[in-house]
Every structure is written in structure tokens, then in C-alpha cells.
Amino acid sequence: ETGVTQTPRHLVMGMTNKKSLKCEQHLGHNAMYWYKQSAKKPLELMFVYSLEERVENNSVPSRFSPECPNSSHLFLHLHTLQPEDSALYLCASSQGFFGPQHFGDGTRLSIL
Amino acid sequence: QKEVEQNSGPLSVPEGAIASLNCTYSDRGSQSFFWYRQYSGKSPELIMSIYSNGDKEDGRFTAQLNKASQYVSLLIRDSQPSDSATYLCAVSSIIGGGADGLTFGKGTHLIIQP
């Protein structure tokens, strides 16, 4: 596998469910990111991790909980989501903070 | 609030012509600038990066940066129908704890007419 891999590609869940999104990067990068992309809105940075330590959470609601067990893996744990949380969730990685970020294919999340 | 502004378009350009995409940003401290291409339903794909004033060319793409004017542009020469996509301008900023993050514009929808 190469690049940044996200699973699942699609997820439909109820508002009371708990699920997790997974991201894995095979680029040897030391920083990983979660973004949210809603229709007709710019990409929104949610979380930044550097060397497994969270640097910025950007005022994201607590129903989103990130986890970074090592520099290659990143999770986004979801619970009690709202319909407005339906969006494309993108993971990215970079080498250093000023380098270009490489994106995974994203998880399309739909909240019923 | 750091902002990145782009004209949302659509920008319609005849095949073979030059497409010109523009972006302005608010954070004077920004040091890294990127252009991403995003096809409908797909994730953003990095196509150009630029870090210093002037022009940077890569194949049919040229990125231009003017830090004094806080302006970044992307030129696509010999436009092809496959260039039809949304082009996202992204600017790096210090967001806290010494960390950097990208602030994205809303993107410009480019249509290349055969």
C-alpha cells in the first residue's frame, strides 16, 4: 500500500451510534491531520497531530474524539453525532508542518 | 480569523487556452502556498507548491506568488478537458503550539470547453 489510506470509504450511522474512522499513512510522515469537507464550504481543519501529540483541535465538538497511537495511524472516534455532521472526512499527512499535505480518499459520512 | 479567498466560478476556458486562477490570503506570516485539484467526489490532489516570491513552473502549470500583495495564482497552459475540476488554494499558518495547518479557500470550479 502506498500513500494515505482511509477506511471505511462510506459510513451511514444513526445519531446514537458509536463508530470510528481510520487513517493510515505509508509515507513516513511525522504529522497527520483530520479535515471536514461539507457541501459548498471550504475544507475545515479539525485536528493536527505531530509525533503522536495533538497540537490543535480547532474548537471541534467533543462528540469527535481523535486518537493517534503512532505516527502512521490516526483515528477519529464518533459518538452522538448530529445530522449537520454529515460530510466528507479527510485525513492528510505531511513531513513537517510546512511541507505539502497528502490526502487520503476520505470517508463519506451520513448521519440519519 | 485567517482567510483565503478565491472566486468560486465557474470559470469557463476554451480548450487549448490559458486558465488563470487567483487567490488572496489574509495572514502576512504565511510561508507555504499550495494548489490542489479536486475532482467531484474525490479527495484533493497536490499539483503545485510555492514558497518564495516569483514564478514556479511544472509542466503546463505555473504558480505565481507575491507576498507583498498577499496574492497567489495558478496558470494552466494548453488547457485540456481533463483539467476541469475544482482548484483549491491552501495557505499555511501558525495555528498554535508552533504547529502549522493549512487554511483552504472554497475553491474555483474550472470548466474547459472542448
Keywords:
heterodimer, A: 112 residues, mainly beta, 7-stranded mixed β-sheet, 4-stranded antiparallel β-sheet, 11 strands, 0% helix, B: 114 residues, 6-stranded mixed β-sheet, 5-stranded antiparallel β-sheet, globular
Question: Would you write up a description of this structure?
Answer:
The complex is a heterodimer of chains A (112) and B (114). Chain A is mainly β and 112 residues long. In chain A, 0% of the residues lie in helices and 56% in strands. Chain A has no helices and eleven strands. In chain A, strands 2, 4, 5, 6, 9, 10 and 11 form a seven-stranded mixed beta sheet that branches. A four-stranded antiparallel beta sheet of chain A has the order 1-3-8-7, with no helix packed on it. In chain A, a hairpin with a 7-residue loop joins strand 9 and strand 10. The mean pLDDT of chain A is 90. Chain B is mainly β. In chain B, 0% of the residues lie in helices and 58% in strands. In chain B, strands 2, 4, 5, 9, 10 and 11 form a six-stranded mixed beta sheet that branches. In chain B, strands 1-3-8-7-6 form a five-stranded antiparallel beta sheet, with no helix packed on it. In chain B, a hairpin with a 4-residue loop joins strand 7 and strand 8. Classes of the chains: A mainly beta (112), B mainly beta (114).
